[in-house]
Amino acid sequence: MNTRTLLPKVNVNMAAMFCARSWTGRLCRPRASRFPTKHATFYRPSSTSSHPPTQPRSSHTRRRILFLLLGTTTFLLFATPAKPPTLNETTFVPYTITSRASLSPASFILTLVPQTPNPEPMYLLPGTNRWRHPLWSVEFKQPEVQISRHYTPLPPQSKDGDDMLDGAESERNGALRFYIRAHSDGEMSHYLRRLRPHDTVQLRGPHIGFDLVKRLGACKNIVFLAGGTGLVPGMQAARVALDGYEDTNVSLLWAVRSRKDIQSTPPSEVSNGWWGSSGPTEIQAAEGLSPIARQLADMKAQYGKRLSVQVVVDEEGSSFQPVHLQKALLDIGKDDKLVSNPGSGCALHDQKLSEQASEFEGDAGPNCACSPVEGTLPGKNLFIISGPGGFVKHYAGDKVWQGGRQTQGPVGGVAAQLQKKNPQLAKEWLVLKL
């Protein structure tokens, strides 16, 4: 049963008279709330105006928003530049893996070609297969977790005009090779280990490293100590220094974990301590060399005595001791006339100022602030340490994070011990960490 509330009947004439006697007529108006509701729309009453009350503006606002969105979308479609199809520093571009050569269970070489042909790669000097920059790298993207990591491409395998890679894999057409070691932990390592020929990878770069030419100046010597795949920047540096200057000398000191990184099977004839020595051995042409060792042997044949490549193998108990490093630093420049500058106050040659430097300098790196020495370019010999973090820390001290970037930090480890023992090394040699 519905319940109704009955209101008493009121005489209409009496109500009108009562309203007329009220000096405000307030009792005849509907009683409004003292505070308006949140979504209330108000109209100003007018007893004289013949125009209807103003309508809400919500429809006008919706139309304005719609036109604004359409205009913004049109602008983004037509005004935003298209992504560059070839290797660049801003966007990732696709490359195809054409080959994968295993060196050991954890290390391998990948050859990549750009999916968009690139007959004039920006990292090569025009008309040659020589690097434009002494040190540079690219980023690989791990698409599953959206992370990236820098890898250094191997230098071209041949001299100018003698490209050993043909067709689509030609270095002059943008083909790149990478020597990679997949560590047991890490998302990037797991991703790289799974890659096979015909897979697509995304690259971004080049990212420019230290300008070694400006730092060398008139000096002639580079000693490059590398652990594992850290050898690749040393091969880059050697190619640039030895191709660019006829009197430059480079000593590559390469520490590997397994003999398989150098040679898969023992040679039929053992000579000069090449196999099984407890100390550093000079690399030689031999049977069954790995692709990396074979390229090093080819470089030695090309540059002769100007290039030395010594190897130690961790699994065989050999390593680079302080005495080996001291000998390499002192022997390589023993016949040179000193032309280096102490470099005080120069961002390129002052070791103290170099502590604040990042290895990614870009094209706009620092300029030399040294005074000329005997009419030659100021410079210093370079002692460069490259490899895993623990390797670099042992031989040259930790890198330091400052302001969101990784800097060189002070010289430590074995290098600092050698400088303390022989102060002349600190004066003539600049230490760099990669």
Characterize the structure shown.
It is found in: Membrane. The chain crosses the membrane at residues 65-82. Residues 90-213 form the FAD-binding FR-type domain. FAD binds at residues 188-189. The protein has 434 residues and is α/β, with parallel strands linked by helices. Residues 1-49, 160-164 and 269-275 have low confidence and may be disordered. The chain has helices spanning 12-21, 58-79, 187-194, 212-216, 231-244, 291-303, 322-332, 351-354, 389-396, 413-421, 423-428, and strands at 93-102, 107-114, 136-142, 147-151, 176-181, 200-208, 221-227, 249-256, 281-282, 307-313, 381-386, 400-402, 405-407, 429-433. The chain folds into two domains: 93-208, Translation factors (Elongation Factor Tu (Ef-tu), domain 3, Beta Barrel), CATH 2.40.30.10; 212-266 and 273-433, no CATH class. It is 25% helix and 20% strand.
Strand order of the largest sheet: 4-3-6-1-2-5
Q: What sequence of helices (H) and strands (E) makes up the elements? A: HHEEEEEHEHEHEEHEHHEHEEHHE
Helices, by number, come to: 11
Shape: globular
Q: How much helix is in the residues? A: 25-40%
Poorly predicted regions are 1-49, 160-164, 269-275
Largest beta-sheet details: 6 strands, antiparallel
Structural class by sheet pairing and helices: alpha/beta
End-to-end Cα distance, whole Å, is: 90 Å
Number of discrete domains: 2
What is the average per-residue confidence, as pLDDT, rounded to a whole number?
A: 80
Q: Beta-sheet strand percentage?
A: 15-25%
Number of strands: 14
Radius of gyration, whole Å: 37 Å
Family: Belongs to the flavoprotein pyridine nucleotide cytochrome reductase family.
GO cellular component, one term: mitochondrion
GO molecular function, one term: oxidoreductase activity
InterPro entries: CBR-like (IPR001834), Cbr1-like_FAD-bd_dom (IPR008333), FAD-bd_FR_type (IPR017927), FNR_nucleotide-bd (IPR039261), Riboflavin_synthase-like_b-brl (IPR017938)
